[in-house]
Design brief:
Chain lengths: 385, 322
């Protein structure tokens, strides 16, 4: 009996350690960040204090963190779907942009409809726009075997130029078109089309929508046939094919849905934050790199939609805090990009210990093995062949 | 719109892609997919530029860039070779780390002014050849000439030398290579390092030769990703990688030139009169990459060519038949 008890205890401890791995990964990344700060002759304690203060120091700061976390979470939800289906979607930036363009067009066109209806239509349009932009690489992967990592990156670059074209050409604010400066932006949305704010801060309804969708995506992935099939294709496409699943269709669907959530993220940026589209010529100028950072958040949340909520808040806090850090100790806020990368480095590095302990658990207790998410199987990179 | 000038500039700017793609060919031939090319190029471009400012000698800048980018690549090597983690995720992380460090350390570099660049010169005799002379051998950067030398060298090395055979063995069937006494792990570390060095050289080629200066992440502007795409199109062959790189370089130049003249083929040039139409032209290199990937993949299926068999797979000693 005591042997069994010991076994269960060590089992419990090892699972506990597993769940703490992301925390260790963050601490390790912050530690290396501290070394970099020392290298830049900045006191890391002072810098991180400023970062914390910027992200959580006041209700406004925290609201700002949540505002930044919202698009991260929406993108991350899409990433959970696609990576579970063993489809690597790096196209969040482009999908956000196209979603935002679709949504903005709705708001600028249907100016005489009631506000709530336009908001609903706009969010749906954003969803559709992202789905189109994610669906194209999906079709290319399923039917032409084009590596989706590369095609989604290329679709990002194409979307940026599309945005630049539209915002300087057909969609430019008519009042700007008169001026010599010609700032590349659309006309502002009507006030009644703005997403309602939740508390007297900049926090908007989009955050709540994102959290609700996180639960829905969990249900989709683990409680519906569609989600089961996407995951089955991700785990083992051959087995899925023998089981009668139309693999190609679910590859397309995984990318299409993934893009749709990014598109929704773009739409909420327009309707909840900026109230118009404006470009500085780059993708990050509009997205704030949420299309990339959402991937980081999803990986950090272990590709689980609900765990992606705290993960997104963490990375939202890093982004907001970095701005404060830049003001207080004059460190470029780009440091956060390196920190994000380091977090992923440590998360992905720690997988080997998780796997090793999982094997031990299997050997010791015959416990049921949780299959790893497909991207961890390594070797699915099948570059274009 | 002089075709000679477009091709000449195309070869010059294609050299950036060439170095990065050659490096990726070598790394992938050893079985390691490194998606961090963009990050390694950025850190190469940044260190080349800043070291040249500090020392006044662009050669030192280039060497440091190669070393720093090689060093960065070893993070990826450690994660995917020793820790056997997922190569895609690690490569993405490397892109972020490389970009983040370059942007932090490169802050303020854009205002640094002019530095001494890598020398340009013409090759006597060869530059006299009609058409090819002006395109390939006239007033090109020394780095472009290095690219001419490196391409056949890499091809010969991979296909016709003993270490090249070992390289292919490690990428195709690491267990067999291991049984023959080849150190799979050391080989992979080495080729990831070489890949990083060449990506760094590509970055240095931007900041010290083709488009001198440091413009934060716009310095590379996604060329690292295009290079990864070219490797697939090139079927992991250095010669095809070179041709693809030069073609892309020429396309980029053509896109710039087509917007300049008042008339095009005897008609009013729409890109001159509606400058925002130019954004469509700027999509072309990326759209082309997608098309190239479609063609490359179809051809690979038809000819039953493919990626190195062990690409993306960690090698775990003693594991069933890998």
């Amino acid at each position: 009996m005591s042997a069994l008890k010991n076994k269960l205890q060590s089992e419990w401890i090892s699972r506990f350690i597993d769940s703490l791995l992301p925390v260790f990964a963050t601490l390790a990344a912050l530690l290396i960040g501290a070394v970099m700060l020392l290298f830049l002759r900045v006191n890391p304690i002072e810098a991180y204090a400023a970062l914390w203060d910027g992200a959580f120091g006041s209700p406004n700061a925290f609201a700002e963190t949540l505002v930044k976390a919202t698009p991260l979470l929406l993108v991350a939800l899409g990433i959970c779907i696609s990576f579970r289906g063993d489809v690597i979607n790096i196209g969040g930036e482009g999908q956000m942009i196209v979603g935002a363009v679709f949504a903005t067009w709705v708001g600028l066109t249907f100016t005489n409809l009631p506000g709530w209806l336009v908001i609903v239509l706009a969010l749906l349009a954003g969803f559709a726009g992202g789905a189109v932009w994610g669906g194209i690489p999906g079709l290319l992967k399923a039917y032409f075997r084009v590596n989706e990592i590369l095609s989604t990156v290329m679709m990002n670059a194409i979307a940026v130029q599309l945005m630049n074209f539209l915002l300087r050409g057909p969609m430019i604010d008519p009042s700007q078109a008169q001026l010599a400066s010609k700032i590349p932006q659309t006309a502002p949305l009507l006030d009644i089309f703005r997403l309602p704010r939740l508390v007297p801060t900049r926090l908007h309804l989009g955050a709540l929508i994102a959290v609700i969708l996180a639960v829905l995506v969990y249900i989709l992935l683990w409680r519906t046939t569609l989600g089961y099939r996407i995951r089955a294709v991700g785990q083992n496409p051959n087995a899925a094919r023998y089981a009668g699943i139309k693999v190609q269709r679910y590859v397309v669907l995984a990318l299409l849905l993934s893009g749709a959530f990014s598109g929704l993220a773009g739409a909420t940026q327009v309707y909840g934050v900026n109230y118009r589209m404006i470009t500085d010529g780059s993708a990050s100028g509009f997205t704030g790199s949420a299309g990339f950072n959402g991937i980081v958040a999803a990986l950090f949340g272990q590709l689980h939609p609900v765990w992606s909520i705290p993960a997104s808040i963490l990375f939202g806090a890093l982004l907001v805090g970095a701005n404060k850090m830049q003001r207080v100790v004059q460190v470029p806020s780009a440091l956060v990009i390196a920190l994000n990368g380091l977090v992923v480095v440590f998360v992905v590095s720690s997988e080997i210990w998780r796997r090793r302990r999982q094997r031990q658990r299997l050997a010791v207790g015959g416990m049921e093995e949780e299959p790893p998410p497909p991207h961890e199987k390594a070797g699915q990179a099948e570059a274009g062949t | 719109m002089d075709p000679i000038i477009i091709l000449q500039a195309g070869v010059a700017s294609g050299t950036v892609l060439l170095f990065a793609a050659l490096g990726e060919v070598l790394a992938e031939r050893s079985g390691v997919l490194n998606l961090g090319v963009e990050g390694m190029m950025l850190i190469g471009a940044m260190s080349a530029f800043s070291v040249t400012i500090a020392t006044g000698n662009p050669w030192i800048g280039v060497l440091v860039a190669m070393f720093v980018a090689g060093l960065l690549s070893q993070i990826h090597a450690f994660i995917v070779i020793t820790l056997q983690a997922d190569q895609v995720v690690s490569g993405l992380a490397l892109t972020l780390v490389g970009a983040g460090i370059s942007l932090v350390l490169g802050e303020g570099l854009s205002k640094a002014g002019t530095v001494s660049l890598m020398p340009n010169f013409s090759i006597p005799l060869l530059s006299q050849i009609p058409i090819l002379g002006p395109i390939l051998f006239t007033r090109q950067s020394v780095l472009v000439y290095i690219g001419y030398l490196l391409t056949p060298l890499a091809w010969y090395y991979i296909n016709h030398t003993r270490p090249g055979l070992h390289l292919r063995a490690v990428g195709e069937y690491p267990a067999a290579a291991d049984a023959l006494g080849i150190n799979v792990f050391r080989m992979r570390y080495m080729y990831v390092f070489v890949g990083g060095m060449l990506a760094g050289l590509g970055g240095a080629t931007i900041s010290l030769a083709v488009a001198p200066g440091w413009f934060s992440e716009l310095t590379t502007g996604g060329q690292g990703w295009i290079a990864v795409g070219l490797v697939i199109f090139a079927q992991w062959d250095p010669i095809r990688a070179a041709l693809g790189s030069y073609a892309f370089g020429a396309l980029r130049r053509l896109i710039l030139d087509i917007q300049a003249p008042l008339t095009l083929f005897g008609m009013d040039n729409p890109f001159y009169y509606n400058p925002y139409w130019g954004f469509f032209l700027q999509m072309l290199p990326y759209a082309f990459t997608v098309i190239v990937l479609v063609i490359g993949s179809r051809e690979a299926i038809r000819k039953r060519l493919g990626a190195p068999a062990a690409l993306g797979e960690p090698y775990i000693r003693g594991e069933r038949g890998k």
